[in-house]
Amino acid sequence: MIELRYKKRISIGAIASTFGFWIALATVSITDIAIAQTAIPKTPNRSEECEILIVGGGLAGTAAAYEGLLAGRTVCMTEITDWMGGQLTSQGTSALDEAKKQRNLWFFPQGYIEFRKRIEQKYGKLNAGDCWVSVSCFIPNTAQQILVNMLQEAAQKGNGKLKWFPNTVIKKLEMSADGKQIDRAIAIQHRPAPNTPPLNTELLSQIIDEAYRYENSSRLQKEVIHFMPLASPKNSSAAKQPNNWFVIDSTETGEIIALADVPYRLGLDPRSHLNPSSPVTENDAYCTQGFTYTFAMEQTSEAQPQKKPSFYDRYSPYYGSDPNPNLANFDSIFTYRRILSAESENPKRNAFGVSPMKAGDISMQNWVWGNDYRPGTSQDNLIYSKKQLQQLGQLEPNGWMGGLRAETLKSGEEIALGFYYWLVAGTTDSQQKTDWKKPFPNHRLLTGFDSPMGTLHGLSKYPYIRESRRIIGRPSYGYPEGFSMSEIDVSRVDFSTEVYRENLSQQTYRNLWNALAGLGSTSAIRNNTAPNQISRRTRSTIYPDAIGISQYQLDFHPCLTEYPVEKAGNTERAGVRNGHGPAFPGQIPLRSLIPQKIDNLIVSGKNIAFSYIVAAGYRVHSYEWSVGAAAATTASFALAEGILPYQLVESLPRISPQLARLQQKLVQSNNAIAFPDTSIFNLKWDDWKIW
């Protein structure tokens, strides 16, 4: 069963009209009265009970809901936008990033495979856009419809219940007396004030601050919701239950881990033998990967009027094709992430093996020197650091405002809208000296509530976030300062090159190669073997507590060196791309989902315990599904067993019987925890290339 938890003074027909594909029940009562104009309401408008509260309805959150419903759980899911699916939908990055062999074997989580099948059924082909960045590009609002249907069917199949809360943010956490449990989560759901336009009319930067305020405004009406544990959890014994609900942080920027103040990292990690490609010796919380507001544009048979944005000149020095001269042409940029290809019998192919662009084609833009916005200083960073949050009072009771800089969101929106104008009217190129760029006016920006992005302005409802706050896991065997996945756990980069010999001290370089020796590590340390005599391990780290899988290129969209981003001649931060390169098929350990301090909080998405270099590869679609599925399966298993997640990994490196049962449960539900033939003795991974 799925319930749309969004009370409004409108008819059921109006809800159906607004959401189209949604089957929902609307209840209207005398209690649906606007909350008082106070900063901190004394009582909630209503309370909602859950066994699993998923905060953030992005791709990992949707995957978690899918598995939670199949397990028969009562799942509450909140989302700041009104679409579930994150990268696939509200962020507009509807071009699947996948590793070639993983794709050829269809070695993905069960829900992700089902989604791919339904995309192919919908369009009659997997690659609706005939794009060349992926084998599957499609319209975001199509993905939204598919995901809604999948969750409806999962609820029916598993006898679960989803309470879906769109346009909802978490404002406050109420903790147990010992501070180890989240007892309640206080949320704010917003809707348009009477006689105002629908949501998705304004840009996100214009309403995000209002969304986190209790009081109503001239634009938004609010409802305060208290989330709390289900009174009688299913399939568990209340007598043995140390906890009767779990909160999963699936937000795009790690909101709950910041609000809960559990240990985490943000930005560049210090260089060490574990993360040897890092360009800094101390943490830099301000240099994170760039974020992107995507948009969709359609080629037309005739030239369209193109209005120059008032802010265009500010950003024009930034725009360019790519340092690669092969990408300095409009056809390459347009077909790169084309999400709908008009019917054509034209057998011609461009340099990238896809059909040339033609009238009726729709392209989604997600371009590094285009709509990527890449701040890297304390003046313009998007995700506030802990120090900044403290200075702003956001960690004070009822002080949380989302932890993002609205001004930087606005700049990201402007650079995206300006990039569209550059594509159709620009004549400069910041990355090429050739004068190839000329106007291409036969295009239009797709805007409106029925457009691919579902917004009146045409930009995605939320930016594509590549890097988040990342927890530091609990101390465990081999990780006395807290667990985290590191670069050398997954990277195939050649660490014998000059850059590592010069940038690392002699001892650090030796420690690096001792760690890379795999089964020979003990011998290398005992015999003081020289690094150039060590045979490198040719696989990823194998984790005894693995609960998911991922493989993708360690791919960076680095912050820029100076403020502001669009400054003429600005360059990428030196060294951030040092770790760029292929990665081995890797695993997701359960320890990376378990934060310190709080026992009933699980993290997923981009919030798990890994370095910024690992995050550069563990941010793609199938990874998010895998980690989301694992998070919900772990929560459901812990409820059924009457345990807490950290207890599953206390005995490592020995695998406890309960951990073994959890892993078996994941495998039986077709959510793999290891790639085929994963073994400490199998070093033959040469054919597991990314592309």
Short synopsis of the structure:
With 691 residues, the chain is of the alpha/beta class. It is built from 17 helices and 20 strands.
Number of strands: 20
End-to-end C-alpha gap: 40 Å
Instruction: Give Rg in angstroms.
Output: 25 Å
Average pLDDT: 92
Please report which band the strand proportion falls in: under 5%, 5-15%, 15-25%, 25-35%, 35-45% or over 45%: 5-15%
Number of helices: 17
Helical content stands at 10-25%
Principal-axis shape: globular
- Low-confidence segments: 7-38
Structural class: alpha/beta
* Largest sheet, spatial ordering of strands: 1-5-4-3-9-20
What kind of sheet is the major sheet? 6 strands, parallel
Written account of the structure:
This protein has 691 residues and is α/β, with parallel strands linked by helices. The chain has a domain at 503-537. The chain is 24% helix and 13% strand. The protein is built from 17 helices and 20 strands. It has helices spanning 12-19, 59-70, 100-104, 110-123, 140-158, 204-211, 255-259, 312-315, 330-336, 386-392, 406-425, 498-503, 506-516, 521-526, 612-615, 621-641, 657-668, and strands at 2-4, 46-50, 52-55, 74-78, 161-165, 168-175, 182-192, 220-229, 246-249, 264-265, 291-292, 295-299, 338-340, 362-365, 372-373, 443-445, 470-471, 546-550, 586-589, 601-603. The strands form six sheets. It has a six-stranded parallel sheet. α2 links the parallel β3 and β4 (74-78). α2 (59-70) runs parallel beside α5, α2 runs parallel beside α16 and α16 crosses α17. It is globular, with a radius of gyration of 25 Å. The model is unreliable at 7-38 (pLDDT under 50).
